Amino acid sequence: MTRCLVSVFFFMVALALSGPSGAQGLFQDGHSALLGTPENPVEVGVGIRIDQITSVDQKAENYGAVVVLRFEWSDPALAFDPDELGRDFRVFDPPAFVRHAAARDAVVPAFVIHNQQSNRWVHESAAALRHDGHVTFVEKSSLTLQAPHFNFLRFPFDTQEFHFEVVSVFPSDFVHYYALDQFSGLGDTLGEEEWILGNARMLASTTTGLSGNESDQVSLVFEGKRHLTYYVIRVFLPMLVLVLVGWALFFLDEYRKRIDIAGANLLVFVAFNWAISADLPKLGYLTFLDFILQCMFLMTGALVVFNVMLRRLKVSGREDTARKLDNYAIKWIYPLGYAAIVGYAVWAFLMQS
After folding, report:
1. Is the Cβ–Cβ distance between 23 and 139 less than 8 Å?
2. At what angle do helices 288-315 and 319-328 cross, to 10 degrees?
3. Is CATH 2.70.170.10 correct for 2-224?
4. Res 95 pLDDT > 60
5. Considering only CA atoms, which of 108, 195, 213, 198 is closest in space to residue 156?
6. Residues 169/210, Cβ–Cβ less than 8 Å
7. Domain layout of the chain by residue ranges
8. CA distance 152 to 106
9. N or C end of the chain: which has fewer CB within 10 A?
10. CA-angle at 48, arms to 47 and 51, nearest 5°
11. CATH class of 229-351
């Protein structure tokens, strides 16, 4: 009864994985072989090594990678006599290996990449079979992967988490995954200049597979931090200059000139906001940099209104009152206001999140 149910499940999986693209996956046929038993599931080692990061798209929340996948397992049904063959191993391409394993009624542990978003274009792949039935499958491919764990609350001081998730097609009762840590991690030359990538580790877990049952999953998880020098030079330094220009306005006696310069600053902040938002998705929350920019925008707008008010006081003959308010703003309101904004932003966005 168990073998019958498993055979039906394999047939459904074969239908699900079949398709016109030959670049999609490892084993797209040959799923009729019985894969282990609940009492003795097949133990499959999984290694994930990313050699290149081809792109990181923050707006789409995905990244491109060139990856080397490695699978190892043993099946006595695949053993052969090395003396008869003349060597200790045989090498197959994936379709030939599937046919060879199916002829032996042997295990063929198929997999899917859980967070894959694009076609997986296979560069090279091969299966090596040792005389004792030990199989090593290696594939080098490129693809685009979803990155749903991105969180931009601390942007640009955020640390993002990237995942590469490999899930067994078959339930955990039949195939069990474990991590091959020695064949996993990040390459030395990833080709990614915007991010500092590291802290790679392999995580084993279970998830709902194609069958609707719990399937084993092995994930390569790594983290990325931004090169802050770029943001210091391109964003924070110009912002500091604009703040100092706004403060310098208080030393002009001509209120009309103040209003003109403050109005120009408003336009600069609008341009800043558009430039930064172009790199991020349409978020439902404020980031650290958003908060700073919006507060600076409000402060500059208030500066225009304040100088208009001072101009009205001077025209109405209350120039002494205007000068007192002006002096108070120079010494206290403007500098302490910005200090409060930055202090709150650091506390609320960088220290609490």
Report:
1. no
2. 160
3. yes
4. yes
5. 195
6. yes
7. 2-224, 229-351
8. 47
9. N
10. 135
11. mainly alpha
